[in-house]
Amino acid sequence: MDPPPDLTVIIPTYKEGENIEAIIRAVQAVLAKAGIRGEILVVDDSSPDGTIPAVRALEAVFPNVRLVVRTSDPGLSQSVVEGFSLARAPVFLVIDADFSHPPDLIPRFLDEIRDGADVVIGSRYMKGGGIEEWPFSRCIISSGATLLGRILFPDITDPVSGFFAVKKEVVTGAPLTPRGYKVLMEVLGKGRWKHAREIPFVFRERRAGSSKLRTRTILDYLRQVLEIFHYALSHREGEAWEEWRKMVSFGIVGISGIFVNMGLLWLLTRYGGIYYLASSIIAIEVSIINNFFWNDRWTFGSDPDHRRRSTPERFALFHVVSVGGAAINWLILFVLTEFGDIYYLLSNLAGILAGFVWNYLVNRNITWRRG
Ligand SMILES: Nc1nc2c(ncn2[C@@H]2O[C@H](COP(=O)(O)OP(=O)(O)O)[C@@H](O)[C@H]2O)c(=O)[nH]1
Ligand SMILES: [Mg+2]
């Protein structure tokens, strides 16, 4: 038997009779040019058009082309996951049949995997990426789906992309329950991965045929997001869980800081005989130190990737960010109370929330920046 391929290119198809031969030939050419030993696995849901005969004809010409015809439980995600189970290479790449995803980028996906990434995502939403000629409604739907996905995976700009590569280990054994369109979300939510990277690309309108996106797909997606969320909470593992754990830890540390601040203010003023405004400066500083210590040890402590900066640097940045957070808190308290005619304690709650979001995001992305 031939040596196993280096890469399995999975092409899910439904009624792609007009595109399938061209895309297979295009992928084939890219693989040959880059010297990649690849197999092409077409996973079709019993298309009634010319898709199946077209692939059969190519199977006869190219030994590395395979066709799987599914006859039950049709669906894009289901097809891709079935492709995972049949692929022979250690790395899988998923690409649409309609030329929306540029095959030229395939070698870059493999390079990134070889360079240590577990998942490589073709992103429409990072610098250099984009979408060509989509109707406004489609842009809105896609942006909504992407934003929702980013709540689970804030480091990933395009968690719903259909153009991605994964190492086999990420998905084998993962309890994937594919449904609907967004198979990458399922992979990110339940697969075993640590390092994800993105490559920008411009999504082009399909060359021929029509899209199979339906309203049902949107409902499927919402259900999927909830399911991944539930999975993260009940299994307490995976990147979505890690993300939420950090946010909750950060919140708890913040609350501990309030106690330190209040307690010290009281102690120093009452028993230290210090004027309360002076006590407050000490109390604020100690609470910032308290929060830094616990966030450093606990919130971001389990992940060595968060320690790219030296301790003094993290300490200094945390201070700067905290001052910014306090300023945001005050500003919102002031504006909402004065101009919004809102009860000052409610304004303050909004201010605290905004300050928290600021503190968390900036500290997570700058103070405890990952590599
Ligand atoms: N196997 C399979 N492939 C599908 C199904 N629906 C869509 N596809 C394929 O998935 C890719 C993306 O689908 P498309 O309709 O172009 O979605 P859009 O690009 O989001 O509008 C194309 O290669 C389709 O042929 C399905 O139910 N089963
Ligand atoms: Mg398409």
Topology summary:
Elements: E1 7-13, H1 20-34, E2 38-44, H2 51-61, E3 65-69, H3 76-86, E4 91-94, H4 106-114, E5 119-123, E6 130-131, H5 136-152, E7 164-167, H6 168-171, H7 183-190, E8 196-200, E9 202-203, H8 215-235, H9 239-270, H10 276-299, H11 311-338, H12 344-367
Parallel strand pairs: 1-2, 1-4, 2-3, 5-8, 6-9
Antiparallel strand pairs: 4-7, 5-7
Radius of gyration: 26 Å
Output the helix-strand order. Answer: EHEHEHEHEEHEHHEEHHHHH
How far is it from the N-terminal to the C-terminal residue, by CA? Answer: 42 Å
Uncertain segments of ≥5 residues (pLDDT<50)? none
Spatial order of the strands forming the largest sheet: 3-2-1-4-7-5-8
> Roughly what percent helix?
40-55%
Judging from the principal axes of the Cα atoms, what is the shape? elongated
Beta-strand percent range: 5-15%
Question: Cofactors and ligands present?
Answer: guanosine-5'-diphosphate, magnesium ion
Major β-sheet, in short?
A: 7 strands, mixed
Number of strands: 9
Number of helices: 12
Name the structural class: alpha/beta
User: Average pLDDT, to the nearest integer?
Assistant: 93
